[in-house]
Design a protein that fits this description.
The complex is a heterotrimer of chains A (198), B (344) and C (645). Chain A is 75% helix and 0% strand. By secondary structure, chain A is mainly α. The N and C termini of chain A lie far apart (54 Å). Chain A has one domain: Cytochrome c oxidase, subunit III, four-helix bundle (Four Helix Bundle (Hemerythrin (Met), subunit A)), CATH 1.20.120. With 344 residues, chain B is α+β, with helices and mostly antiparallel strands. Chain B folds into three domains: 68 residues; 99 residues, Cupredoxins -  blue copper proteins (Immunoglobulin-like, Sandwich), CATH 2.60.40; 96 residues, Orthogonal Bundle (Cytochrome Bc1 Complex, Chain D, domain 2), CATH 1.10.760. In chain B, strands 3-2-1-5-8 form a five-stranded mixed sheet. Chain B is elongated and about 90 Å long. Chain C has 645 residues and is mostly helical. Chain C is built from 21 helices and two strands. Classes of the chains: A mainly alpha (198), B alpha+beta (344), C mainly alpha (645). Chains B and C meet through helix 2, helix 3, strand 7 and strand 9 of B and helix 6, helix 13, helix 14, helix 15 and helix 16 of C.
């Protein structure tokens, strides 16, 4: 750092690190907190609709492919493990492991998203059919959008891993997308349980 | 703090509190209550006012006193005494407000419970105890249905004196809100649900019914009247009205016209209506010509589907669309009444 | 984080582009074509999808508008350079350490560029928000002109509804909330002894979202059918089914402004947690920092709820979904619950930073330590927690479950206790002080007195029976303005005057400042106090027309409001004049102890040459030889300027 600071005359003094937590990790966790609340607002809408329906749930005429979505859930959850594997690999300096782990995670996530889209086209009801359709598509769609964002982050990390970036002691560019990816996975379990099973 | 300063502070406080009290008493803040509920609400209002004046006087007195007494001299660069806090004081100003707001909450909760409560009738079988009225709001009109009187509907709210009335309020399109300032009670009309409101009018007279929830471009115009009358008079009004609406076509047109509140927007001389929100119905003949339609057909479509033809100079979407659900007989009566009354 | 990290690959500063390459460099030359490009992409994708799905018509106005309200802003941001660093980073290309080269503003042009210096961003924020304040105020003037007489004068009903909706939306989302963020941006890093914010690029991005949101809301007046007209609360089903397309401008504008708020709040939190100077424990932080810390927590937790609520309304409007359509199983009241779960905490988002400013000003100007420092900080946290439990006090007459009313009333009332602690502590700080009545202090005292009136009218509203009578009347309008104008706005003025010398290096004109205060104070009371009476007597809010009985008082209010508006001219004139021609300001004109005053005015480009060492509490006025912080070496000299006895 000092070398760098001398290289550029116009460098600020290094800030005092007043917490053990790394700024980037903390930032990501706070961001996730607000994401959880965004999901919270959608779940609130979901329960308003569900409770005010006063009928059997899901309302008549809505068959959800619980089994296929269950398989899809397993796919997404396993991608969390590959993500973890990738991170562990680079922590040990194993670049090939990092690359394989990231690529696998990306592909699993993509599979999930494509399966989800295929499911949409076969459901037989639309967001504008009725309130059940609305809430189903919006909740799963919100999650799908998050998977998409997660995939974008993963793509960047993957590209960089192939370009030879990241080392055993500098890998926050893998760690941060990883945290986000785990969040997306956990969120899916909640969505799946609420929408498909409960 | 020296003793003299306490006296001065108290004096300033009394002046501030006295001033605020005068403002509270001399200005007629509250509308004259015309229902039992309004009377109780007024009590809460005064209860809170007394507490608030005391707090305001305290705050104002300390600020004014500080401004007068603790002003630094020009150029002075002294600091004040380094007082960091005082646990006793801090406990007091946590506990006292807590006690005061608890008191307000208790009074409010009691009044709320009383205002929502319908006492048992003294004589069993009184059809007016409680009187149930279904209030339907829509852009931008009110309609009141007396379920106990053969679903009699009216565009103005007629109420018997000293009888508890249970309003069941709903809406056909967006949120509205029913309010009569003199009754103190207010309740939103929400599409898809029935909300209850209890009112016990205790003063004869006519009061405005106001929509207080923003409901679109006609929100400001969405007004009606509430008329409180002795129970006997109310009963005879209800009977007479039932008869009129069911009467032979032609004669009941006028009743349908007023019962549906057409007179709250239109001018129509035969009915004594003189409002200018919608087109002048005295000129219906010319207007039908301009639209290129036969008179009767023009009137009928204008009522059941007002947006089909919009009179130039008037806003589309202002006239309610719900009159399409008027019973056939009433609609016929209304159309022939309007056609007959239209100027040649 | 300004620290250079190892897995970033650095290239030196880029050479300035020449010729047509200037079109590629981030800046205003790149904005037009990037915006057009994104417009095209948005429209193209929409048309493609609709064509593939066989939806008719392929070109649908409302859908295209909605898509473009997302795509065009992204084009603008990409053009101005908001994403350059991240795009290069993501692609694995060498990144430039522009977080430092982007520091400081050398000419006024630098304020119109992406700039990562928190001081520049702070000023960008303040100037932008004051612009929107004036715009929103002028809308209010139109409203008052219409309301001066009963009947319709200048505008029709729909336009009037648009006027107050845009007025309030701009005042709240584009003025009060971001103005506090602007002051915080400038002051917080200085106050905690940090060289910058934790995420400077994110900081720049959050600023540039604001003009987007603002112009989107203002621009809704140009949309076919007029501006959004369902109030700033945008209740469904009115907003979702009975509004022109302008309503989507509000839905999307809120998203942009909300994203900006969340990003700034996140930045504040991380900065405050990880970048405090050595020795600055939480219990040594100035109360302004505490206030922004709690506010930021509120923002991060609550704001997603308004994002949700606006998404739902927009989907109902554009995609004909059924969140709030009871006929298809939707639940109309759900909107209000979700909306107020954000928007009640939002009123504290609009007040807590003001509490912080008031604490700074009152303590310094009274030359006394703030009374009960710890309780002051704890009461902020208490308001934060309680603020989440009172949302339904906006729904006492909305037809929600009746049993919910009493608990909501009790929690609303309880908020008076921590707020009271703050008020009484300020009064105790004044007591026996050596009070200097400079303009910031006048505004701070104006704030305490006016906010108490507004808070007490809040107590009236929180008492359910009174609220049943006064809800949705001018009594509420009076409450709004006493807390927002008398509360938030007075503290914003106090803050701007207080830090003006630090921000610009020049002193404002004290005589004009005092004139501004008195005109505002008097005009404000004449305008808004009579509204209490109007409301109780029966004048509903949000109406362009009213019964003749209220005519005289409304005329009076309108005249007073024009006077109030004119007082703003004094403020604007003073700011512009003093910024250009004012006398140079001392480093520490108020003899304050907090860190931002221990550096030059304006501060050096990286705030501190050496990170200071915090050794004491920030408000030790009157304590002999008290120090809040010490600097090494040459900094000692400036310290001598702080007379502490
Ligand atoms: C800065 C913004 C701000 C702040 C701080 C507040 C503070 C409070 N507000 Fe306000 N409020 C708004 C902005 C704000 N409000 C807005 C914008 C609306 C309208 C929204 C709309 O519909 O458009 C609104 C509406 C509103 C309503 C709904 C009215 C209706 O639509 O029917 C209610 C009802 O309970 C309410 C209550 C309160 C209370 C109890 C407080 C309390 O926090 C106040 C606490 C402060 C004090 C009480 C004063 C100081 C205390 C003391 C000196 C101690 C002693 C006091 C006692 C013992 C009482 N507010
Ligand atoms: C921070 C918040 C804030 C601020 C500062 C203001 C400031 C003002 N407000 Fe606003 N207002 C709200 C927040 C705010 N308001 C909210 C939340 C609502 C509720 C909306 C809803 O129902 O949805 C509302 C509603 C509202 C109404 C009720 C509308 C209705 O219900 O029908 C009215 C009516 O008088 C009003 C008036 C004013 C006036 C006269 C000012 C003045 O203080 C403005 C003064 C400023 C200027 C005028 C601009 C600068 C001046 C110049 C450049 C000088 C030149 C101009 C002239 C001399 C004309 N406001
Ligand atoms: Cu109906 Cu306002
Ligand atoms: Cu509130």
């Amino acid at each position: 750092m000092t070398v760098q600071a001398e290289a550029h005359a116009a460098h600020p003094p290094e800030a005092h690190q007043s917490s053990r937590v790394d700024a980037r990790t903390l930032g990501m966790f706070l961001f996730i907190a607000s994401e959880v609340m965004l999901f919270g607002s959608f779940f609130t809408a979901y329960f308003f609709v569900r409770v005010s329906a006063h009928t059997h749930w899901p309302t008549a005429g809505h068959e959800l492919p619980v089994f296929v979505a269950g398989i899809n859930t397993i796919i997404l959850v396993s991608s969390s493990f590959t993500m973890h594997w990738a991170l562990q690999a680079i922590k040990r300096g194993n670049r090939a492991g990092l690359q394989a782990g990231l690529t696998l995670t990306f592909l699993l996530g993509l599979t999930f998203l494509l399966t989800q889209i295929r499911e949409y086209s076969r459901l037989g009801f639309a967001p504008y059919t009725d309130a059940f359709g609305t809430i189903f598509y919006c909740l799963t769609g919100l999650h799908g959008a998050h998977v998409f964002v997660g995939l974008t982050l993963l793509l960047a990390a993957t590209i960089r891993s192939y370009r030879g970036h990241y080392t055993a002691d500098a890998h926050w560019g893998v760690e941060i997308p990883g945290i986000y990816w785990h969040f997306v996975d956990v969120m899916w379990i909640v969505v799946y349980t609420t929408v498909y099973i409960l | 703090m020296r003793r003299g300063s306490v006296a001065q502070l108290v004096a300033i406080g009394i002046v501030c509190g006295g001033g605020a009290a005068l403002v509270a008493i001399l200005i007629p803040w509250l509308p004259d209550p015309a229902s039992r509920q309004a009377g109780r609400i007024d009590f809460v209002f005064w209860f809170v006012t007394v507490i608030c004046i005391a707090i305001f006087a305290l705050v104002a007195a300390v600020i004014i006193y500080s401004v007068l007494k603790f002003r630094a001299q020009p150029g002075e660069d002294m600091d004040g005494p380094p007082i960091h806090g005082n646990t006793g004081l801090e406990i007091v100003w946590t506990a006292v407000p807590a006690a005061l707001v608890t008191a307000i909450s208790i009074v409010s909760a009691i009044v709320l419970a009383k205002n929502d409560h319908i006492p048992k009738a003294s004589a069993a079988g009184d059809p007016l105890h409680p009187l149930v009225v279904e209030v339907t709001a829509q852009q931008f009109a009110w309609s009141f249905k007396y379920t106990g009187f053969g679903d009699l509907t009216s565009a103005t709210l007629k109420l018997p004196l000293n009888k508890p009335v249970k309003l069941r309020i709903t809406s056909l399109d967006v949120n509205h809100s029913f309010w009569v300032p003199e009754f103190g009670q207010k309740q939103d009309a929400v599409p898809g649900s029935w909300n209850n409101l209890v009112i016990t009018p205790d003063k004869n007279g006519t009061y405005p019914v106001i929509c207080t929830e923003l409901c679109g471009l006609g929100h400001a115009l969405m007004r009606s009247r509430a008329e409180v009358m002795p129970a006997q008079k109310f009963l005879s009004w209800a009977k007479g009205q039932q008869k009129k609406l069911g009467g032979p076509a032609g004669s009941s047109g006028k009743a349908v016209f007023t019962a549906n509140g057409c007179d709250s927007c239109h001018t129509f001389t035969p009915a004594g209506a003189n409002k200018k929100i919608g087109p002048d119905l005295d000129n219906l003949r010319q207007e039908a010509q301009r639209a290129g339609q036969p008179l009767e057909q023009f009137i009928r479509t204008s009522i059941v589907d007002p947006n089909a033809y919009v009179e130039p100079g008037f806003t589309k979407g202002l006239m309610p669309t719900s009159f399409s659900s008027l019973p056939k007989a009433q609609l016929d009566a209304l159309v022939s009444y309007l056609a007959g009354g239209a100027k040649k | 984080m300004t620290a250079v990290t190892h897995d970033e690959v650095h290239a030196g500063p880029a050479p300035p582009p020449t010729g047509w390459r200037r079109l590629l460099a981030p800046g205003w030359l790149r904005v037009p074509w990037m915006t057009a490009l994104f417009f095209g992409i948005g429209a193209g994708i929409t048309v493609l999808v609709r064509w593939l799905e066989g939806w008719d018509p392929i070109w649908k106005g409302s859908v295209i508008t909605t898509v473009e309200l997302t795509a065009v802003p992204f084009g603008f941001l990409a053009g101005i350079g908001g994403f350059d660093y991240w795009m290069r980073y993501a692609a694995g290309s060498p990144t430039r350490p522009e977080d430092h080269s982007g520091h400081g503003a050398r000419s006024w042009r630098d304020y119109f560029r992406i700039n990562t210096d928190h001081k520049v961003i702070g000023i960008q924020y303040l100037v932008t928000t004051i612009f929107f304040f004036v715009a929103a105020g002028l809308l209010a003037m139109l409203m008052r002109a219409e309301l001066a007489r009963p009947g319709m004068q200048f505008v029709d009903n729909q336009t009037f509804n648009g006027l107050f909706s845009v007025h309030a939306a701009l005042m709240i989302f584009l003025f009060v909330i971001p103005a506090f963020a602007g002051i915080g941006n400038y002051v917080i890093p200085l106050m905690i002894g940090a060289p910058d914010m934790a995420f400077p690029r994110l900081n720049a991005l959050s600023f540039w979202l604001l003009p987007i949101a603002g112009f989107m809301m203002l621009g809704s007046f140009l949309a076919p059918g007029g501006a959004f007209a369902s109030g700033w609360t945008g209740y469904a089903p009115l907003a979702s089914t009975h509004q022109p397309i302008g309503s989507v401008f509000f839905n999307m504008g809120v998203q942009w402004a909300g994203a900006s708020s969340i990003m700034t709040a996140l930045n504040f939190l991380v900065t405050i947690i990880t970048m405090r100077a050595p020795g600055m424990s939480f219990w040594r932080m100035p109360l302004l920092v505490w206030a922004n810390f709690t506010t930021s927590l509120l923002v991060v937790i609550a704001t997603p709820f308004i994002a949700g609520s606006q998404f739902f309304v927009m989907f109902d409007h554009v995609m004909h979904t059924h969140f709030f359509d009871y006929q298809a199983g939707g639940y109309p009241l759900g909107y209000q619950h979700i909306f107020w779960f954000y928007s009640h905490p939002a009123v504290y988002i609009m007040m807590l930073p003001g509490f912080g400013i008031a604490s700074e000003v009152i303590s310094v100007m009274s030359r006394k330590p703030i009374f009960g420092y710890r309780l002051m900080a704890l009461s902020l946290l208490a308001i934060l927690v309680l603020g989440f439990s009172v949302w339904a006090h906006h729904m006492f007459v909305a037809g929600m479950a009746p049993w919910l009313r009493v608990p909501m009333m009790v929690t609303s009332m309880v908020i008076a206790v921590p707020t009271g602690i703050k008020v009484f502590s300020w009064l105790a700080t004044l007591w026996d002080g050596r009070i200097h009545f400079d303009t910031p202090m006048l505004f701070a005292l104006g704030f305490v007195s006016m906010f108490v009136i507004g808070g007490l009218s809040g107590i009236y509203l929180a008492a359910v029976p009174i609220d049943i009578h006064t809800s949705d009347t001018y009594f509420v309008v009076a409450h709004i303005h006493y807390v927002l104008f008398g509360g938030s706005l007075f503290t914003i003025f106090a803050g701007i005057y207080f830090w003006f010398p630090k921000m610009t290096g020049r002193m404002y004109d004290e005589r004009l400042g005092k004139l501004h205060f008195w005109l505002t104070f008097i005009g404000f009371n004449l305008t808004f106090f009579p509204m209490h009476w109007l409301g109780i007597q029966g004048m509903p809010r949000r109406v362009a027309d009213y019964v003749p009985r209220f005519a005289d008082l409304n005329m009076f209010i309108s005249l007073a409001s024009f006077g109030l508006g004119a007082s703003t001219l004094v403020f604007v004139y003073n700011m512009v004049k003093s910024w250009r021609f004012g006398p140079a300001a001392a480093a520490n004109p108020w003899r304050s102890l907090t860190l931002e005053w221990q550096v030059s005015s304006p501060p050096p480009i990286f705030n501190f040459d050496e990170i200071p060492q915090v050794v004491g509490n920030p408000y030790e006025y009157g304590v002999p030889d008290a120090r809040h912080a010490v600097f090494n070496g040459d900094r000692q000299v400036e310290l001598e300027e702080v007379p502490t006895r």
